[in-house]
Amino acid sequence: MSKYFILILAFFLIVIETNAQKSNLTQAEIINKYIDALGGRQRLQSVHSIKMTGLHFYRGLEQSLTILSKRPNLFRVEITNENGKRVSIFDGETAWEMTDEAAAREIQDPRSKIFMEINDDFESALIGYKAKGHKVEFSGIENVDGKSVYKLHLKLSNGRLEDWYIDRSSFLLLKCSTTFKRRNREFGHDIFFMDYKKVDGIMIPHYIERVFEPHYVRGYEITKVEINPELKIELFQARSVSEKSSN
Amino acid sequence: MRIHWIFKGCLVFAVLLMVAHQLIAKQPKKNETADWPRFRGPKGTGISQETGLLKTWPDGGPNEIWRVPIGAGYSGISVADERLFTMGSDEESEFLICLDPANGKEQWRKKIGQLFKNSYGDGPRSTPTIDGETVYAIGAEGNLIAVKAREGEFLWSLNLKTEFEFRQPQYWWGFSMSPFIEGDKLMVQAGGSGDHSIVVLNKKNGEVIWTTHSDFQAYSTPIAIDFNNKRQFVFVTAQNVVSVSSSGDILWKYPWGGSIIKIAMPIFVAPDKIFVSAAYGIGAVLLQMISDGPSITIDEVWKSKVMSNHFHTSVLIGDYLYGFDNGTFKCIKAETGEQTWARRRLGKGSLIYADGHLIVLSERGKLLWVEANPNEYVEKSSVQVLQGRTWTPPTLANGMLFLRNQKEIVCLNLRNKKS
């Protein structure tokens, strides 16, 4: 009786072990599958600029949204409502903001600054991460909103720490977490990527939700994506005059 | 022979009479089940006892009965005895407004005070409370009024600010808690100095019965609970969860979350626990009341950031709490705080429960019909009803769902048949 029991137990242990090996990919495999899921290294490298338009949601209000990004690390967000347009720029080194009425000034609010800074890599930080000087460490399997994810801990070359949560079935990024400091306190900042759709061979999240402590939520709904539009470098430069005067 | 038939006929008539009587007796009193006389419904739990609602909604959503402008304000909607009450405003003043719930026609309006202005939106925040023939309302500047529900005739009024030495907190959003009635008592948070934090008035004339507790005001409406066969009233004030007896004795107090703003109501997890939740980094805590001789001590069962209710209170259905953790709609197990599912993209929405479902209103006016299912998020229908910022929770009364934003109020028919 005990012989059979041991045999059955051994069989189940082998099955469990085999399944575990199947699901437990190496860190390099996870990253490669993630890059493939996004569209593949070759296709991603052929993209030099992206323009996304849609809606921005905050405190129940809806505003029109334009997000521009350009290699290697340029990023611009325009949010327009009935009171005018607010523009935030990351010029590769510094985050700036300007309005219709006011000239560019460096972003001081760490809640806004962190969103511009974490978009400082046009292509994903995981593409060629070693050459970029980043360190990546697999930190286990977790759950994001009911989905099983691989958690990767990134220490970027600029010192910023990020946790990336990659869907174990689609290999797309579902969540990116980092922190920011405000009034000598550290706060969490999470970005959730949802509603991925393929555009010209690239998987683009069409809904992005920023959740940052202590209680803020901002939604970015993307309705149109243009791959490789012509984007002048001036769009990513801080102006000494207001948006209104510069147009 | 004829007499026999007459006798038989009488017998049948008597039986029919008895059956009819039984049927009438079995029908619940309308006011007890189908009205929504105060903030978060008949018992302040966000739960409606109504059944027979649409299982799924047709394309375009439930039948819209009426839609009328209401003016700025986040005031909720109360309905009883075929009258609907909410508060709204014009450019100068705040009003208690009575509408006919059948057609949205205004019956009367009473000025409460000057318009409260705020960068997050102007107007009154509190929800009127209907108690029999009287309706009570608090304007954002602290004017408490008692008015005859039928005609709108003033019974009494007082200003909570001036009457009770109100101390304005650092971040001020206006008086937001709704009047709470228990027997002859009307309970409010006045946030006054000394022992004027909690104020209990005679609902008939506004005279002070007792005051107690020293704390700044929070925006939370209290609840009444029975623990160990004793009635108690649980308030969330600025820095405490505090329980008082009907005679004003403080039964227990739990210091909670410093001076940070608290808005959501406490939830009674029977037989002996209280769930409280707040945003701004505080999160939730489940408290257990333990009898210790004549006194009550409080234990923390769990404490977590899994559910941070910003300005809408969760709903407890069975063993599970459904609510908005800031901008994420979640279900958690009340006893443990364990999360079972989460749904994004709704903003800081609100919800109530009816007929096995959650009626969820997103922060941008999208209405959803979601199974009250702790195991998975099952959305059965949805429709965009309102546009823009929608911070007032839904009201369900007599099969009609009432929703509002800063501009208008709308009535939808959730019954199977068109009325």
What is the topological layout?
The complex is a heterodimer of chains A (247) and B (419).
Chain A: H1 2-23, H2 27-38, H3 41-45, E1 49-58, E2 61-70, E3 74-81, E4 84-90, E5 95-99, E6 105-106, H4 110-117, E7 135-144, E8 147-155, E9 161-167, E10 173-182, E11 185-199, E12 202-212, E13 216-227, H5 243-246
Antiparallel strand pairs in A: 1-2, 1-13, 2-3, 3-4, 4-5, 5-6, 7-8, 8-9, 9-10, 10-11, 11-12, 12-13
Chain B: H1 2-26, H2 30-33, E1 63-69, E2 78-80, E3 83-89, E4 93-99, E5 106-114, E6 129-131, E7 134-138, E8 143-148, E9 154-159, H3 160-163, E10 180-182, E11 185-189, E12 198-202, E13 208-212, E14 223-227, E15 230-236, E16 240-244, E17 250-255, E18 267-269, E19 273-278, E20 283-292, E21 295-304, E22 315-317, E23 320-325, E24 328-333, E25 339-343, E26 350-354, E27 357-361, E28 366-371, E29 379-384, E30 395-397, E31 400-404, E32 408-413
Antiparallel strand pairs in B: 1-32, 2-3, 3-4, 4-5, 6-7, 7-8, 8-9, 10-11, 11-12, 12-13, 14-15, 15-16, 16-17, 18-19, 19-20, 20-21, 22-23, 23-24, 24-25, 26-27, 27-28, 28-29, 30-31, 31-32
